[in-house]
Amino acid sequence: MSDFEIVTRTDFSDVTYLLEIRHPQMAKAAKPGQFVIVMEHEQGERIPLTIADFDRAKGTITLVIQAVGKTTREMQQNCKVGTHLHALVGPMGIPSHIGDAKKVVCVGGGLGVAPIYPQARAYKESGAYVIGVVGFRNKELMFWEDKFRACCDEFIVCTDDGSAGIKGLVTEGIKQSIAKHSDIDEVVAIGPPIMMKGCAEATRAHGIKTMVSLNPVMVDGTGMCGGCRVKIGEQVKFACVDGPDFDGHLVDFDDLMARLGRYKPTEKNALEAWKDSCRLRGTTADTIPPAHSH
Fold this sequence. Notes:
Blueprint: E1 4-11, E2 16-22, H1 24-29, E3 35-39, E4 47-50, E5 53-55, E6 60-66, H2 70-78, E7 84-85, E8 87-92, E9 103-109, H3 113-125, E10 129-136, H4 145-151, E11 154-159, E12 166-167, H5 170-180, E13 186-190, H6 193-204, E14 209-213, E15 229-232, E16 235-238, H7 239-242, E17 245-247, H8 253-262, H9 264-281
Parallel strand pairs: 9-10, 9-13, 10-11, 11-12, 13-14
Antiparallel strand pairs: 1-2, 1-7, 2-6, 3-4, 3-8, 5-6, 14-17, 15-16
């Protein structure tokens, strides 16, 4: 039995859930921007997940996961307080360079909201003026508002339907920030590729340095498989060892999105096969544990 015990589980919505895992060494070593590779059980898939938070005093790391594919749905069903993960490797990737920026906009969209939090906190701790911009589809999907407000000097919420904050995409929050502040040193954006591409375009004309965190398919996390290669300007990089942070103005987002799209049929087949096996076992793949926190 591994000792990667799940000590907290919180369900933010029917698809988004938080796992806090006891791993004192990793909590001690983790830095903003890094990720882990998780295996839920011995035959499980290796999946990369960005570290959403770490608590050195408690000896825990926090992951916020969206149940979209077979493995993340399986984890949603099985990972409860007191259960253990089979394997947890990390922290991996190059930590985000916090540097000495005086004014920073930290942007998170959807699931990117969780991993942008340690970045915002680190910038605040370095003495920067931090503007947080987060985007959700609607108010019901919002989480961690209090955590962000505690480390952001300004905090802008954007929702697709206008049920909270301003109506629109996170790019609206970026535009508002640029209009209000002429001295922004850097924008950091984490979220789906299409969102990060929009953020990079929103800052390009203003010449504001924009860093993004890329999420291509990874297998081993050591640069050996080449599955996570991305085009950055004229160069090919491997997100797992050269990233995951890159200059958003140099990223070939269209190539990244095309590569991600190639795996969709395989992912769909794996999910359908898992649903079938659930039916055979007499469980339902759509059984969601009740929302709760510990």
